[in-house]
Input
Amino acid sequence: MIAIVDYKAGNLTSVQLACRALGCEAVVTSDPQQILAAERVIFPGVGAAGAAMQHLTSMNLVSVLREVANKGTPFLGICLGTQILLEFSEEDDGTPTLGLLPGRVPRFQPTDRRDKVPQIGWNQVHQVRKHPLLEGIEDDSEFYFVHSYYPAPSTPDLTIGTTDYADITFSCMLGRANIAATQFHPEKSGRIGLKLLNNFLHWTPSR
Amino acid sequence: MLTKRIIPCLDVIKRRVTKGVKFQNNIDLGDPVEMAVRYSDGGCDELVVYDITASAEGRPIDIEMVREVAAAIRIPFAVGGGISCLEDMSRVLLAGAEKVSVNSLAIKNPQIISEGSKAFGAQCVVLGMDPVAHPNDSRFPSGYEVTARGFRVRTGMDAVEWAKRAVDLGAGEIVVNSVDADGTRAGFELTITRLIAEAVNVPVVASGGGGTPEHIRDAFVIGGADAAIIAGMIHTGDYTLRQIKDALHADHVPVRMHW
Output
């Protein structure tokens, strides 16, 4: 069973629909037992980090996510879900987050007014190392982004892919062992995004 | 580099995509789900679906259609028309739309922008606005007034002031649909597009008047838009999305070329 973690952080319909398009019936759930029992876990999310952490805490999901990540379950963070995997977000006057990956989440500070915040749209992902989730996906393919904050892992070897926006190159895909995480939305990135999701659904991480 | 988005617009009446000029003389173009799939496969970057008679008929948006579109395509889409409250916004988003577009509702009740933004995130809340040129009228410092209800009602609000206020309230994107250019296919209204693009720090979408790839290029390069909504020029088959993107690419406009 594939679990899509529901923690009241936005709309999970499109993630579920994308899994369905790949022939996989994923379950949208906030039940700790179901999440712990899942063979794969998708941790999406849209919205603000502060409210998301409050929900995770009040729903007793913080330790559940930590356990899932530690026991080797293939785990995919998407957008806000990815940001929350790091240690600290600048959002909402500073929000301590899960800390499953080392690093912070700062806000874009463009110097050129033409660089809008949020970044909305399709941008290139530069592949900096090989990863099973990128199998069959060409370097510099475009994926769909919607975000004002970005992942800044504190160890460079976590980075799988980078994207250029608002004067910086940020880590748009990161991970280690059984954890992979994207700032972009594979479920909304057309055929290429589906390819990445399909790779996740068939991924056997090396421990 | 972030690419400029090309967004086909599907104006739907009773489950059929239609095209009219200035909201009149509508003709039938096809099934919205089939057209969404065709344009998505053809390389559009996003879609917008308007249930254009929902408001006038006082009925909620066709949520089943939203569900079917969401199930059929894997790119983002926005939905507008017939949104009358926060609950409507929620239903549209839960049905699988990425964004919800409010226009007349936001004029009547600006707080809906902040409520929607707070509940779902600013990126889900698009302000659609229909400005009309009003030169030499001191009530409108930008030279443009906001109209409502399909251009039929004047609001007395300055277009740039309204855009700024909407962003302050929490709108994550602004669609500038020129009343004067709508349906003409003679080019986007670049002046008001640029005024708003320079006044706000969220993405601005040019709408109304796109007839050729050059018009779209001008909306980006001169109008400062981040995306462009098109309708007639592809609905009629005069251009394919591939032709439009090839032309923009040749003109050094960053667009998504592989899909």
